[in-house]
Design brief:
The chain is mostly beta strands. The chain contains no helices and eight strands. The protein has one domain. A hairpin with a 2-residue loop joins strand 5 and strand 6. It is elongated and about 45 Å long. It starts with a strand and ends with a strand. The mean pLDDT is 86.
């Protein structure tokens, strides 16, 4: 699943479904979660001259240890961090 609008989320399957997929959130303030062995792709933006500019786009594989399955992540300062609600 891909999302590229303002403040949305990308979700693909659940761990018990045993799928290998990619959750992509490339819009401003996006978040994503995916099952184990799948991938998460997120973007990070900065404001510059009253515009939003892409600072980074990164991907990571959900390994269940460093990146937890079925857990929302955001990209902050270039690192994947668990979303705190």
């Amino acid at each position: 699943m891909t999302n590229s609008c303002y403040s949305s989320s990308a979700i693909v399957g659940k761990s018990e479904e045993n799928i290998n997929a990619v959750a992509i959130g490339i819009g401003y303030q996006n978040k994503a979660k995916a099952p184990k062995d799948s991938w998460i792709v997120l973007s990070e933006y900065v404001e510059k001259d009253d515009r939003l500019i892409i600072k980074a786009i990164k991907s990571v594989q959900v390994d269940g240890v460093k990146i937890l399955a079925d857990t929302f992540y955001i990209l902050k300062k270039g690192k994947f961090v668990v979303e705190v609600v």
